[in-house]
Structure formats: C-alpha cells, structure tokens
Amino acid sequence: METIGFIGLGRMGRPMAANLCRKGFHVAAFDINPAPIAEVAALGARAAASATEATKGSTVVITMLPDSAAVEQVIGGADGVLVHLAPGSIIIDMSTVDPLVTDRLAAAAAARGIGYVDAPVGRLASHADRGESLFMVGASPADFARIETLLQALGTTIHHCGRVGTGMRTKLVNNYLAIVSCQLNAEALTLAQRFGLSLEKTLDVIGGTTAVNGQIKIAWPSKVLRGDTVPGFTIDLAHKDLTLIVQAANAAKMPMALGAAAREAVSAARGRGYGAQDFSSMVDALCDLLDVPRPRLAEAAAGV
Ligand code: NAD
Fold first, then answer.
1. 3-164 maps to which CATH number?
2. Rounded to 5 degrees, what are φ and ψ at 209?
3. Distance between CA atoms of 78 and 58, rounded to whole angstroms?
4. Predicted TM-score (pTM) of this structure
5. Closest by alpha carbon to 248, among 136, 165, 180, 160?
C-alpha cells in the first residue's frame, strides 16, 4: 500500500486526510496551521512537523492548498516536495491552480523521475466530508491506474480527463459555470426580494423551468437560503478561481465577458468584508448593498 504525505488540511484537505486514515491508508499530515494536524493525528495519521517531513518516506504526496503561489512554493520551492521525494513516487495536486503552474511542475517532476497528477475536486465541501467528491484527473494512463484506488477512497466519481493538465483545465471550465451562476442567482434573487416576491414560490417556479441551475437547486437551499453562510467554498476562493479562469481564457485569446463582470462583483463583495463567507452569500452581499432583505426560506426562519 502507498504511504501518503498529505499537505494542506483546510476545509477540503482535513476531511480527505481523515477519510484516508479511516480507510486504512498510512498518512503523514502537515499544514502550517497546527490545529487540523492534531485532528487527523487522532485518527491515526503521523503528525509531520514540516512539508519535508511529510514528504520523506512517502510514495505519494497529495497537496490540497489554497492557490498557485502555495502550490509552487510547497512542491517546486527550494526546499520543496520535488527536492525530497524519491524517484518513482508520485505527486497528486488536488488544489485549484493556474494550469500553467501544473504544466511547469509536471515537467520538473518528470525531469526527476517523479510522476505528476492534477486531480482538482468538484462538488461541495460537504461531499468531501462524506467521501463523495468528484475528481477531474489529468494523468498518464500508468499514473492514473496507480492512483485510481486512492481517489476512490475519497470520492464516488473519478473522471480521467486526459494527459497531465487536463484535470485543471476541466476544473476551470466547471468553476466558470458554478461561480458565474452564483452571481446570476444573486442578481435574480435580489430582484425577487426587491419586488417583494415569495422566495418559496419563486424557487418553485424557476425549479420547473430551464432557469434553474445546480447552485440554486442543490447548494443554496441548504446554505445561504437557510441562513448558513459558513464556508463551504469561500467568496475569496471563488474570486481566486474566477481570476484564474479569466486570465487563462484571455491567455488563450478567449474573451470572458460575463466572467469578467462576475469577477468584479465578487471582488466588490470581498472589499465589503464577505470574503470568508460561503460563496452562496453573494446574494447577501448584494441585498445588503441595496438595503433589500436577505432571502431566507420561511421554514428556516421558523427553525424547522
Ligand atoms: P482552505 O483555505 O480551507 O485550506 C487551505 C489549507 O492550506 C489551510 O489549512 C492552510 O493553512 C494550508 N496552507 C496554506 N499554505 C500552506 C503551506 N505553505 N504549507 C502547508 N499548508 C498550507 O481551502 P479549501 O477550501 O480547503 O480549498 C483548498 C483548494 O481546493 C483550493 O484551491 C480551492 O479552490 C479548492 N476547492 C475547494 C472547494 C471547497 O468547497 N472548499 C471545493 C473544490 C475545490
């Protein structure tokens, strides 16, 4: 069985490392924040004092870090994973980052005889808690065969999108739709609030037409519309992803008119202090700005 170094134990990484421990994998866990290390150590992981300590002796290193800068530093830095991981091992980056960073790190890994897989994650943090994530994987056929069982311990749907880098690019396409939908929903439900419409009836109507989308159908009724703005996926991370998406698209000479506008709306919400809230709270940010009541389901308000 592989020995796994797990680096980055935030909202996503912590439950994933915990699920690997529960399923009998040998895990060495590290985060710059010590609190979640203790949590996964209580489930049997070895508490590593540094990323280097999590890397040495591992055959697979998983990174679940916030952004491109963190991934470049942890994997490709002067004292990074690539320096300490033995040839024949494999790195799986599950973070959402710039695909050009993925390409660069994969090339550096190949030069050292180390495999590199991009496996960003779809669905919500609550799915990661339950081991029901979706993975978009970029990997050589041999690397994919080697890590498939490991991914099955963390998720129910594993898509092999193609060679290294295709997972990350698929993730940007996915998050473009997911995040721009949030801004669209925020405007639509704020308009409904401004009109004084019944939230329940509005959801009922749009749920029966082509207007509905996954955010409003699946995510929002159990999050912001219930008054739960705990992330989940933060507005800060949504801003990071939309920035990556617009930049990557522009670099490919592809304009993203709606994406650029949505990114600025997300940016404004961050500027007004909503960055750490769940990204469904985009609707609260807009309602608060316009002094319109926040949309809340009546059953949630009644504490049902
Ligand atoms: P998070 O901010 O909760 O967790 C990131 C963790 O990385 C934190 O615990 C932080 O302390 C740690 N970290 C930062 N720099 C580090 C370093 N140099 N060394 C070690 N640890 C370091 O973020 P998250 O919500 O867990 O998201 C992680 C990634 O997954 C992001 O790229 C995000 O876009 C993506 N993602 C998130 C969700 C979601 O719903 N939260 C869903 C899919 C994908």
1. 3.40.50.720
2. -125, -175
3. 19
4. 0.95
5. 165
For strand 133-138 and strand 121-122, is the pairing parallel, antiparallel, or unpaired? antiparallel
How remote is the CA of residue 119 from the centroid of ligand 1, in Å? 14
Question: DSSP labels for 19-37?
Answer: HHHHTT-EEEEE-SSHHHH
Nearest atom in ligand 1 to the alpha carbon of residue 67 is 32
Domain 169-301, CATH: 1.10.1040.10
Domain limits of the chain? 3-164, 169-301
**Pairwise CA distance, residues 84 & 106, whole Å:** 16
Whether 169-301 and 3-164 are alike in CATH topology: the answer is: no
CA 213 to CA 206: how far, in whole Å?
Answer: 9
Which residue is it, tokens 């890590």? 147
User: Does the beta carbon of 12 lie inside 6 Å of ligand 1?
Assistant: yes
pLDDT in tens, 73-120: 999 999 999 999 999 999 999 999 999 999 999 999 999 999 999 999
